[in-house]
Design brief:
Arc Repressor Mutant, subunit A; 4-stranded antiparallel β-sheet; Alpha-Beta Plaits; about 150 residues; single chain; 4 strands; alpha+beta
C-alpha cells in the first residue's frame, strides 16, 4: 500500500515552481520559496529521494516534428486475461505513434493518446497495428480538435 507523504508549504512551493519551469536555477528557486540556496537544494534532493519528484522532462512542440493529428482511442479487448492485457501493452509499447497508454475501468480496457502526421497515417496505424491484434475487440477514435488545457510536461 502506498501512503501519501506529508509535505509542507515550502515543499509545495518548490514543486509548483519546478512544474512551471524544471530548469529554474537553484538560487532563483530558493529566493522564490524563501530559503537559502543550500537549504533549497537539500529540499529538492529529498523530494527526489522520496520519489515525489520522479524526473524532469522537456516540453516539445510536436507539430515541429511533423505531428499534425492527435487522436484519443478507446480500445476494448476481446479477453480479460492478464496474458491478453500484457500482449496488448507490449504492442502499444512498440508502437511509436502511441504516446500514452492507460489501463482504465468502464466499458473499455484501454485509453490511448496517439500522435501521427495526419489522418492517413492514423488510418494506417488503425488498420496495420490495432486492427491486427487478436486481443482487440473494439476501437473508438476521437480526433482532437484542440486542447485548451494540457499540463503534461
Amino acid at each position: 500500500m502506498q501512503y501519501m507523504m506529508e509535505i509542507d508549504a515550502i515543499d509545495r512551493g518548490i514543486l509548483r515552481a519546478l512544474e512551471d519551469n524544471a530548469r529554474i536555477p537553484n538560487v532563483e528557486l530558493a529566493n522564490l520559496v524563501g530559503l537559502s540556496p543550500s537549504a533549497c537544494l537539500r529540499r529538492v534532493q529529498e523530494l527526489e529521494r522520496k520519489k515525489i519528484i520522479t524526473g524532469y522532462r522537456a516540453v516539445i512542440d510536436r507539430s515541429k516534428l511533423g505531428v499534425g493529428a492527435v487522436i484519443f482511442v478507446m480500445v476494448g479487448l476481446s479477453g480479460h486475461s492478464k496474458k491478453d492485457a500484457q500482449a496488448f501493452e507490449m504492442a502499444m509499447d512498440a508502437a511509436p505513434e502511441v504516446i500514452e497508454c492507460h489501463d482504465v475501468t468502464g466499458a473499455i480496457e484501454y485509453f490511448l493518446r496517439v500522435e501521427v502526421a495526419d489522418l492517413i497515417a492514423y488510418k494506417s496505424f488503425h488498420s496495420d497495428t490495432l486492427g491486427t491484434l487478436p486481443q482487440v475487440k473494439s476501437i473508438t477514435s476521437y480526433i482532437n480538435l484542440g486542447s485548451s488545457k494540457d499540463l503534461r510536461a
